[in-house]
Please model this.
Amino acid sequence: MFDLRQSLVVGFQSSGAFFVSTFLFGLMFGIAAAASGLEHWQALLMSASVFSASAQFASIEYWQHPLPLGTIALSVFLISTRNILLGMSMTHHFDDHGTRRKLIWMFLLNDPGVVTALRLNQPVDKLGYITGYGISLMASWLLSTWAGLHLVGVLSSRYTEPMDFAGPLVLATMMVLFAKGSGASPVPWIVTGLAALVLNEMGVPVYLVLPLSVASGAVSALKFRGQST
Model:
């Protein structure tokens, strides 16, 4: 059985492939954040404190004055609910660790680290492994965000304007993967997306688009479930 420090090193070394993919997403986020009007320190602070590509892309979609804080909070909460399942799947592996170590793990929580740790055959300390994995991905995320922010100054507007679609594309990709992996019906997701598009075209205030579209998806899910039982 590897101890905490050895497991941390193993986790760090195992993250190579996801270090690269995280860097690419962070580069996209940095460019999109700058194109959306975020200051460099705001984007870097968001990457350091939130550490979630899907949540951060969702946030910058609503970045305008005045900030719709309620809508941003709700969107980030809905996207981040998967962390509840990640925490539940790992909690029994952390019984021998104190609160401080668990808090550090929560801050560096990352999906690929958890999935890889659960499938790993090596006798590693799961908390140390995922923490090492998270340190690597956090470094990649911060470096790529910084690089993306500074890359905007080199690119012309015709290259940065299409990055407005980066957020929706990332969210749509994650939604498709989630629906495919869970085996659930894609109907509620489709209804939610269509409702958001229609509401946006109707000129509904941005802070109402998200809750109304989510409510539409929830209603369709309940109706679809009722018909299938």
DSSP finds 13 helices and no strands in the chain. The two ends are 48 Å apart (CA to CA). Residues 152 and 158 are 11 Å apart (CA to CA). The mean pLDDT is 79.
